[in-house]
């Protein structure tokens, strides 16, 4: 793919891959700017109805403008490849930062506040992320947060009127990529794990998981296998003793409210 030109975008490097598609660095030859492009799964080319639903969702996401959310510039097709054009965000992912260990609370709380601002801005427009995790959060060189892939889980899901496993990006978008599935499963809300329809409270749950991991350096519901992670989400409590002794009581209460297994008892905002 590197060196190839799709529409007026020249692919110059690889940025990563995940359940939602492969991501490349590219140059916009018309505007002379660097962007990220995400190729979409091949099944879109074979399913016109699904492609149309995705296009509708992409228009909604493109209208979402917030300094804490990576912008979606457009949806393109070239030589049979459908791809998203997105803002190129510098820095490292929160997952990369956490690979070096937990984040001190005086650093973690301002970052978490910015994540919450991004979520709230999207929720006010009726958009739920559905796949929030450290790998989908960038920390820029200036120390600011940019949340990636907003709403793509829903856009890529094959919706139906009834509650369905398609509401879970973990169980659909990357069924053959165990690492991707495992990485997502640990942040799924119980209602997602059960294949039920979700609302903003699923993001509140994932936010709690991310903040817990920032403070402790470990996943709240991680397991050795996908089944272990999902079982932990459904049946176990995080190890609250793992939180640093300096964690303020209001933060501890908030985390417990975020990680209520019953959605109607969880923080809604």
**Radius of gyration (Å):** 18 Å
Distance between the termini: 41 Å
Strand content: 15-25%
Helical element count?
Answer: 11
How does the major sheet shape up? 6 strands, antiparallel
Write down the overall mean pLDDT: 84
Helix fraction, binned, reads 25-40%
Tell me the overall shape.
globular
What structural class do the secondary elements suggest? alpha+beta
DSSP summary, beta strand count: 9
Strand order of the largest sheet: 1-2-3-4-6-5
Low-pLDDT runs? 158-182
SSE ordering:
EEEEHHEEEHHEEHHHHHHH
Question: Could you walk me through the main structural features you see in this protein, from its secondary elements to its overall organization?
Answer:
- The chain is of the alpha+beta class.
- Helices cover 38% and strands 18% of the residues.
- The strands form 2 sheets. It has a 6-stranded antiparallel beta sheet, with helices on one face. A 3-stranded antiparallel beta sheet has the order 7-8-9.
- β1 and β2 form a beta hairpin.
- The longest helix has 20 residues.
- It is globular, with a radius of gyration of 18 Å.
């Amino acid at each position: 793919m590197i060196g190839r030109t799709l529409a007026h975008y020249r692919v110059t490097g690889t940025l990563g891959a995940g359940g939602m598609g492969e991501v490349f660095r590219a140059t916009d030859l018309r505007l002379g700017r660097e962007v990220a492009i995400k190729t979409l799964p091949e099944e879109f080319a074979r399913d016109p109805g699904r492609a149309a639903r995705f296009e509708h969702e992409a228009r909604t996401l493109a209208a979402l403008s917030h300094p804490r959310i990576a912008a979606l510039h457009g949806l393109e097709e070239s030589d049979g490849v459908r791809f998203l054009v997105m803002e190129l965000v510098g820095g490292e992912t929160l997952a990369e930062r956490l690979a070096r260990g937990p984040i001190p609370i005086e650093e973690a709380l301002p970052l978490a506040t910015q994540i919450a601002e991004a979520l709230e801005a999207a929720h006010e427009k009726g958009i739920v992320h559905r796949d929030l995790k450290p790998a989908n959060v960038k920390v820029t060189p200036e120390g600011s947060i940019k949340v990636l892939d907003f709403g793509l889980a829903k856009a890529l899901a094959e919706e139906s009127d009834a509650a369905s496993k398609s509401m879970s990006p973990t169980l659909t978008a990357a069924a053959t990529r165990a690492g991707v599935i495992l990485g997502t499963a640990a942040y799924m809300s119980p209602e997602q794990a059960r294949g039920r329809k979700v609302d903003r409270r699923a993001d509140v749950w994932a936010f709690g998981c991310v903040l817990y991991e920032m403070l402790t350096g470990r996943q709240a519901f991680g397991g050795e296998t996908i089944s272990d992670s999902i079982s932990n989400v459904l049946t176990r409590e995080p190890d609250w003793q793992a939180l640093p002794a300096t964690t303020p009581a209001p933060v501890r209460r908030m985390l417990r409210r975020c990680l209520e297994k019953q959605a109607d008892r969880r923080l809604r905002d």
